[in-house]
Amino acid sequence: MDKLKxxxxxxxxxxxxxxxxxxxxxTVHYKIRxxxxxxxxxxxxxxxxxxxxxxxxxxxxxKMSGSIGxxxxxxxQSPFIEKIEINKFGKVRRARIFYLRKLTGxxxxxxxxRI
Amino acid sequence: MPGLIGKKIGMTSVFDKDGNNIPCxxxxxxxxxxxxxxxxxxxxxxxxxxxxxxxxxxxxTKAMIGHFKKSGTxxxxxLIELKGFVRHWKPGDIITVEYFKNDIWLxxxxxxxxxxxxxxxxxxxxxxxxxxxxxxxxxxxxPGSMGASSYPSRVFxxxxxxxxxxxKTVKILNLKIVKIIPENNMIFLKGSVPGSKGSYVIIESxxxx
Lengths: 115, 209
Hints:
A: SH3 type barrels; five-stranded antiparallel β-sheet; 6% helix; B: 209 residues; 2 domains; four-stranded antiparallel β-sheet; extended
C-alpha cells in the first residue's frame, strides 16, 4: 500500500477548498458540460460523509428536493468542482451521519455550531 | 516482444486533462538487468534474458550465483527471456521503465488469482435454473444438457464443465499508458491487470503493425 501512496503523490492535489465535515451544509458549484457549452450548477445540502484520501477522496451531499431525498457523491479532486461554499457548520457526533436518511421534517434538523 | 519484468502495486484512479476519472493499475516496472544475450549463431535464435528483484545470496544456488556473476549483478528472483529487442544490449546493462516512453499501448502477462475448483455458473457464467418451483429441486447451479442422445452417443470434446478456475497465465492486450514515473520506475496503465498485489508481471511493448 505504501508504494501506491508514493505513486499517487505524483498527481497534484488541490487543497484550496475550505475545511468542511459531516453535518455541515455546503453548496457545491459544479461544472456541467452540455455539448460544447459549459455551465455551473449548484448543489446545496448536508454533508453525510467524507471518505478516501488524497486523489481518491470523495464526499456525499444530501438535499431534499421537494419531499424526495437526493444524494450526490463528488470526488473532491474533480476538476469539475468550481468552488465549495460553507453555509452552516453543523454539530454532529459521528463521522457518517446516515441516520439522517430516515429522518424527515423537524427531526432532520442539525444543531448549528457557533464559532 | 521487448519489455520488462515488474510487480503489481495496486489500483487507484486519476483525473485526466478532460476531467475524466480513469481507473488505473500501478505497476513497478523494472529496473531489469540483462543477464544473457542469446544470438542466432550460438543459440539458434535472438533473445535477451532479463533479471528482476534482488534475492539474498544465501537463498540462491551456487549455479545461479555464478550465472549472475557473469553480468556483475547480485542474485535476482525472477528471470525471463524476451525476443524482439531492436537495440543491441550487453550483459550487465540495466533497462528501466523509460524504455516505454515512446509507447502508447502495452501488453501485460501475469498469473491470475486462483479461485479453486468452481462450477459452471462461476467459471463460465452459465445461468443455472432460476426457478424454485415447476419441478425443480436440486439443479439451481447445474449446467443442463451436455449434448444429444443416440447420435452422437458421446459428449463432444471441449464441452465447458466445472473445474479449476483462475491461477493460469493470462495476457491482457492494449492497456493504455496513463503516466510513467521514471524516478521510481512506476507506470500507470488504464484498466486492470491479472493477479494479486505484489505478484510478478511481464510488461511488453507490442509489435502489431
